[in-house]
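Justification of resources, computational component.

The compute hours requested in this renewal are based largely on the per-chain cost of generating structure records like the one below. Each record pairs the submitted sequence with a full structure-token output. That output is archived, and it is also reused by downstream analysis tasks.
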Amino acid sequence: MTKWIASKIMKELALLIVFWRAVAPEKHYLSLHHFLYPGVPDFPVHGVTGVVEGIIAFYSYEDVVRIRHDWVNKLIKENNQLWEAYYRECLNYRKTFRAETADFNDQTSSENEIIQLIVGCELDEETNTSVGYALYGNNGEDYIEIDLKRDTWIATNPKAAAITKKWNENKSRNVFWKTMLQEDCPNFLKLFWRYGQPYITRKVLPSVFLLQKNSSSPVTCLSTGFFPENSNMFWRKDGEEIHEGVKHGDILPNGDGSFQMSVDLQVLSIPHEDWERYECVFKLSGVQNYVVTKLVKETIRSNVIEDEGPFTTTGIAVIAAMAGVIIIIIVGFGFFATKSRKTTDSISTSENDPAIQ
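The structure output for this chain reads:
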């Protein structure tokens, strides 16, 4: 069962790309993430993911689009003609995307190309100004990006120099991209933000659990289900934050659009009578209240206990599998991690995904 869950998570998350940036609250972001995976077994050849403020709004592969949130369904229902035109344009772009990147395959000896494209814009709400971007990646490497100030494509990889020269000779193509990035994208962003704002700006505190594999292992304080991801968690003793014997984990996305994180405390050298002097503290940005969990032995969920809910042997293994999958994705998409100045804080998903055929 654990292997099946990990496999399902891998297929879902492989459609996504996880990367970071510091998000200014007065700026909003919309991006489309296209990929081509020709020759990869049991995987769609083409897909596209729509991301608003770091939240997956929808994704499409082949001829299926999956909607990730109720507010996106409402947007589609109330703007059906606009959405249909938008979706048809995305489907039509598949052929163009393949044709335009066909030359990528000639620049490398790799048998299976992984071609990626991020198209998007950010909007400054205070000044009502926007910045558009289009970034191509090839097998995890920077490849080509657009310079809207000079209406040209730039080869960020020497292998792409011949391709950008060819693209820049097509003036009408460059005009199309400039219009799309500077006019169409900001208009769609405003529409998505209007419908998604209540969900995107919500504040949700986590459930917190203490976990320990065995008596000699560190105690892991796991917080899960919080939103947004801007948060902090630490151990403290007698009310003071401590660093010795503490190991922080990364913030990871859950399947429902929320996040999880963990912080370990090495307890072997701590006398049992002193345990209750230690607390795990979770702080969510913009929320005054903290979530404080005392280090009490009786509340720790251990790997040696069977059939005790999701945090037994199987449950912890699933969490580890999720973390491993995400690490694999981060390594595989190094191209996007380097583009932090142009991408959202992180990508998350939701299980609410009725398919539209």
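The longest strand covers residues 27-36. The first helix runs from residue 2 to 13.
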